[in-house]
Design goal:
The protein is α+β, with helices and mostly antiparallel strands and about 160 residues long. The chain has helices spanning about 20-30, 50-60, 70-80, 95-100, 120-140, and strands spanning about 5-10, 15-20, 35-40, 45-50, 80-85, 90-95, 105-110, 115-120. The chain has 5 helices and 8 strands; from the N terminus they run ββαββααββαββα.
C-alpha cells in the first residue's frame, strides 16, 4: 500500500513553486494519479490527496441529505480543491489563496498522514506536534481500533 509518511521541509520560491518530496512523488508516479490540494476544514493547513479520497468525499455527500449543514461543510472541501500539476522538477505552483490560507512564508512542511498529507507553516506544525505529544503523555494514547484485514482497493482486486 502506498502511503504518505514522514515530514519534509522545502522552500517556496518567489513564484510560489514548492517541491513535492521525492517519496510523495513516488507514490503519485506509482498510482499514476493526479494530486489534489484543498484547504483544511479544521486546521490552518492545506491537505493533499489523490482522486480516491476526493471520490470518498463525493460518495459521502451523495449518501447525505443534500440540504444538510454536513453536506455544505463537505462541499467546502470540494470547492477549494485544485488539481496540481507537477513541473519537470517535481514542483507544484501554489496559488496566492492557498499560500494566504496556510499562512506560508518561504518554507513549507509536508506532514504525511497516511492516505493523504498536509502542508503547514513549519513552526505551526511543530507546535501542534508538541501539543499532541504532551497530550499523549498527560492523557494517554488515543484508543486505536486496528483491524486484522485491510480492504483491498478495486485496483488490487482479482
Amino acid at each position: 500500500m502506498d502511503l504518505y509518511l514522514s515530514t519534509f521541509e522545502n522552500r517556496i520560491d518567489k513564484k510560489g513553486r514548492l517541491s513535492v518530496p521525492a517519496p510523495f512523488r513516488s507514490v503519485l508516479e506509482r498510482r499514476r494519479e493526479p494530486l489534489y490540494l484543498f484547504k483544511s476544514l479544521t486546521e490552518p493547513c492545506l491537505e493533499g490527496c489523490g482522486p480516491e479520497r476526493i471520490g470518498q468525499i463525493v460518495d459521502a455527500i451523495d449518501r447525505m441529505d443534500s440540504l444538510s449543514a454536513e453536506v455544505a461543510t463537505l462541499q467546502t472541501i470540494l470547492s477549494s480543491a485544485q488539481e496540481m500539476k507537477l513541473d519537470s522538477e517535481g514542483r507544484i505552483l501554489l496559488t496566492a489563496d492557498f499560500i494566504d490560507f496556510a499562512d506560508l512564508k518561504d518554507t513549507a512542511l509536508y506532514a504525511g498522514i497516511g492516505r493523504s498529507f498536509q502542508i503547514w507553516l513549519p513552526g505551526r506544525y511543530r507546535a501542534r506536534e508538541a501539543d499532541a505529544r504532551s497530550r499523549a503523555i498527560t492523557s494517554g494514547m488515543p484508543s486505536l481500533r486496528l483491524s486484522m484485514h485491510r480492504q483491498k482497493p478495486d485496483s488490487e482486486a482479482p
